[in-house]
């Protein structure tokens, strides 16, 4: 894939809690509790159908997708895809610019 990196890392809840511990100065336990609370609140809001907008980061929202006809990639057979609700993340312009800038300096 063009532009992909072989050293892709994943940021975990523990990584976020450690960052809060280092940068804010809360205890490790308090930092972990804070991260869990924020994640739980985001999840609860999405479960209620609410949009979650984090200024400078992006917006999480739910989108209803209607029933449609798809194709089994192995057999080519047409199959119905049932209606469903999907979670969508739209990054803010600020986040897009930060990521684009970071990627362009690595090239």
Can you offer a commentary on this structure?
- The chain is α+β, with helices and mostly antiparallel strands.
- The protein has helices at 13-24, 28-47, 93-106; strands at residues 52-54, 58-65, 68-71, 78-81, 84-91.
- Helices cover 43% and strands 25% of the residues.
- Helix 1 (13-24) crosses helix 2.
- It has a domain at 11-49.
- A hairpin with a 6-residue loop joins strand 3 and strand 4 (78-81).
- It has a three-stranded antiparallel sheet.
Q: What topology does this entry show?
A:
Elements: H1 13-24, H2 28-47, E1 52-54, E2 58-65, E3 68-71, E4 78-81, E5 84-91, H3 93-106
Antiparallel strand pairs: 1-2, 2-5, 3-4
Helix pairs in contact: 1-2
* Strand order in the sheet with the most strands: 1-2-5
Amount of helix = 40-55%
Total helical elements: 3
Question: Strand fraction band?
Answer: 25-35%
Structural class: alpha+beta
Shape: extended
Instruction: Write down how many β-strands occur, each being a DSSP E stretch of 2 or more residues.
Output: 5
Radius of gyration: 19 Å
Low-pLDDT parts are 1-5
Q: How can the largest sheet be summarized?
A: 3 strands, antiparallel
Average pLDDT, to the nearest integer?
Answer: 91
N-to-C CA distance: 14 Å
Order of helices and strands: HHEEEEEH
Descriptive terms for the model:
107 residues; three-stranded antiparallel sheet; alpha+beta; disordered N terminus; two-stranded antiparallel ribbon; extended
Summarize the structure.
This protein is of the alpha+beta class and 107 residues long.
